[in-house]
Design a protein that fits this description.
It contains seven helices and 14 strands. The protein is of the alpha+beta class. The longest helix is centred in the N-terminal third of the chain and has 17 residues. Strands 1, 2, 3, 4, 6, 11, 13 and 14 form an eight-stranded antiparallel beta sheet that branches. The protein has a single domain, classed as Jelly Rolls. The chain is 19% helix and 23% strand.
Amino acid sequence: MGRILDDKQIEDFDRDGYLVVEDFASRESCAALKAAAEEIVDKFRPPSRPSVFRTDEQTRVSDRQFLESGGRVSCFFEAGAFAADGTLRREKSLSINKIGHALHDLNPEFERFTYTPELAGVAVDIGLIDALALQSMYIFKQPLIGGEVGCHQDATFLYTDPITVTGFWFAIEDATLENGCMWAAPGGHRTALRKLFKRAGTAVRDDSGGTEFAELDPTPLPAPDDLIPIEVPAGTLVVLHGLLPHWSDVNRSPNSRHAYSVHCISAAAEYPSWNWLQRPASMPLRPLAA
C-alpha cells in the first residue's frame, strides 16, 4: 500500500503535534464499534467495589482493576455516576466512563477496526515505522456527566525511551463544543514532558496504593483558554503526538460523545516496568501492521 497521508498533512502534524483526518472510518464501521461497546456494557456485572475513573487527573491511589486492565477488557464508571448511598444515579449504560485497555486484542470488532493497513500506513507516514498497539479505550463521554479530562501529555502515562507513544483517536460520534470535544495546544509537543505516572512498586498487593506522579518539569501545562477546540464529525481520525498537551471539558449536553482511542509505541523503544499499564507475558504486543 502506498502513502495514506500527503506531504501537507505530514507537515501539519510535525508543526502542530496533531492531525485531523476526516472520513477516515466509515459510518458503518463506527456504528459496529459502538454496538460492540454497548454489548460489553450490557454484559458487564459491576463488582461490589466498582472502579471509578477519575478524569481530572488519575488518583495517586489506583485500584487493582485499573492496574490489571492492560490485558483485560474492563469497564470504569464515571465519577458522578453514584449517589451518596453508593447506588447508581442512572442506568448502567449511561454511567460508564470508558472500557479499557486491551479491546484491540480481545474483542473481534475492535480488533478488525484497529489492525488495518490504512491505520498502519498513517503510523508509517508520521515516522512510527514499527508501531506496536499498546493500549485501547472506548470513551463514552456520557450526557450531562461525562467527566473533564484534565490537560495532559500521553507520554506521562505511557512512557518509552525515547518517547514514541502516539495516540490514534477516532470520533465514533460527532465531537462538538457542547458535548466535550477535545482541545489541543498547537506546537505544544515541542515542549518538555512534565510528569511521569508510575507504579510505586513492582507488584500491587492491595488497594491501598500503587501509583504516583513524578515531576520532571515544573512548567505548567496550558490552561484551557490557551487551547483550541477540535470539533470533528463521526469517522474522523485525530493523530496525537505523545508530548502534545490536550484536554476535554465536561459534557454538559444531552448528547453523548463516543470515541475510540488506540495508543501505539515503537518496537525499538524501551517500555519501563514501572509504567502503570503492563501486559501479561502471555499477551505480547502486536505490530499495528499485522
